[in-house]
Model the fold of this input.
Amino acid sequence: MSEQGKQIVPIIRAGVMGWPVDHSLSPVVHGFWLDELGIDGSYERIAVAPENFEAELKSLAQKGYAGVNVTVPHKQAAMNAVDTCDAMAERIGAVNTIIVNPDGALHGFNTDGYGFIENLKAGVPDFDFSQKPCVVLGAGGAARAVVAALLDAGAPEVRIVNRTEANARQLAMDLAPYWDGDLAVAPWDARGDALDGAGLLVNTTTLGMQGKGALEISLDALPTDAVVNDIVYAPLETDLLAAAKVRGNTVVDGLGMLLHQARPGFAAWFGAEPQVTEALRSHVLDAIKGESE
Ligand code: ATR
Done:
């Protein structure tokens, strides 16, 4: 074929919008999948200050992006700026993934809760969400996604325990209309007691993360057949997971949530279903280690 006759196929562009965005691990995850699947695409870090966010978002179609992830501090603003968004994003009150439709309209969704559930399922394939109460520590953005996903998965009772009780109450109030199970709030000082009879404990606070304070909690009341999940992934084995393991609880680390939440966006933009594998985990762990050195 002559040079003139050659069709130029533009590479598919996606990225992550944040402020700051330098430490986002999303480019590491999506970059791995692009290489692995041999896709001619790019996934970029897009640093956008809050005052420019909406304008940048609206210019995505014109710049040829298939879509983006949205991270701190833009997740709530993204929900208000998109043309349509799915029910889960609305429940959570935040959008973390956006698709640019062929007509340029922006569709937002939230994959954090999906990532949380998929990670648990990968770690404990026979876990039955509908059997026992779940305890969620924290009431921030991550907790919102986790509680909404647990309600969706059929949890009979979710107990939210947070340092600032008012934040836990607000979360419970926001999500109660979507659910007929029991949504309880327990005081932070009684966090150990809240574990009584639970089938799942999830830490969504920043406690236990490298450079943050320790999560102090007595696990004495937690049944030994309960599953314990920390969404903190640096370190991979938090003190909470180490203590739970010693007493015989099954533990699930937080890295898988980060990896699984990235799958729906990748599939939508690049048209291929990516997998969460050991190779991906070690690749991302190396990047995390590199950051902290
Ligand atoms: P994310 O979006 O990752 O959930 P966030 O919205 O800042 O982050 O939420 C952080 C969570 O960690 C909150 O539940 C916070 O409790 P408050 O609502 O009381 O702020 C919790 N957290 C942070 N530092 C804490 C500490 N020292 N002790 C107890 N909880 C803490």
